[in-house]
């Protein structure tokens, strides 16, 4: 027999597709030809696979070898096909009977000594195999826990090519996935640690309840970073669908913890202000990988010292914030990643950033305008909540009175508000108020009475509020009503929403 076929999986973005790894061995000068749109890493598999087979005690076939990856028009990336190529070669040379691998997906990178090394993206690959009706997968031992979270698939693990060969030839046992490690207690920043800043705490709670974007302005030491870092602590845990999405994204980026469990806590990403466009929204040669924006999917993207970020990086956020996804186009095709995040911006009011605020500021009015002007109007127009924090007073910092509310207390209110919104919008599958399109809130049965929105209409007519801002104030008003347990916003809710949107008192 000179032909063999083994199943594997290829990824384009988060979408997996079954790939048939074919090997044909024919008489002729010894050579290895790899076809099926392989990238550079995959082309180098020829040398890795040859060394791994020889160092595993198997015979290398000195014939003309053609390895084809089907479907041919689909670009193939990475080293996850190494193990499947090696087994297909041994099967085609007559060394192995491959019937034990019928309808079994094989994934793994090979070291030169025959060890099977972990690869990125195993979770979405196994999920794609399950959707295609595959009941068993063979994965590297280091990826077994990650693969095991996909229901309906039997996961077998290997640490060496020799072990897989022994399984195929002699029915030797493969390794079982490691036992799941129970989650420990969640320890992290807590809202009770924030002294004072009642306006900032209220803005954070409203943003969490409605999924709204947030901008925190103020001099250094006012608690902007402390508040932003505590936003994930008051967000609800991720449901199964969201947890699978988030975990798959971190798997593709190679950032999953060793336990391989589903990520249930909303992610928090805080890139440095020197981050490039590719680091922020995703990129890279070949298969474009997710950036900080997609790694914060269903969680928080925090840009500290936001005016210090590059203009192109900030402007690249505008479309993903509206669409909830990132499309990265390359010469060999496009890659799409989800990016539904809560954006939190923090900024000092001026370049000198005196801790005492405006009293001792050394900047001219023009310098102050230029500094905050680095945040473009179109970007700021997409920020729902904007608050300016004043310096903390000694009375707040040294208070011996009642301790501020903890994250657990605030999270309970946030959860109740989100449940109310989810129930209201269940028919349209919107999760939070920030997801609701503006036109829906401006027509029956959701349109608010004229006397409730009169001040808001005046701002729109005067030009101090854009049409997008008008809709965002309405969404904020619904969130405030949900937090306070009302079925519909009243005039006070709209007025508070307008203050949070404009930053005016």
UniProtKB/TrEMBL annotation:
Residues 210-393 form the AAA+ ATPase domain. InterPro entries: AAA+_ATPase, CHLI-like, Mg_chelat-rel, Mg_chelat-rel_C, Mg_chelatse_chII-like_cat_dom, P-loop_NTPase, Ribosomal_Su5_D2-typ_SF, Ribsml_uS5_D2-typ_fold_subgr. Transmembrane segments: none annotated. SUPFAM superfamilies: P-loop containing nucleoside triphosphate hydrolases, Ribosomal protein S5 domain 2-like. GO terms for molecular function: ATP binding. Pfam families: ChlI (PF13541), Mg_chelatase (PF01078), Mg_chelatase_C (PF13335). It comes from the Bacteria. Belongs to the Mg-chelatase subunits D/I family. ComM subfamily. This is Magnesium chelatase family protein. It comes from Micromonospora polyrhachis.
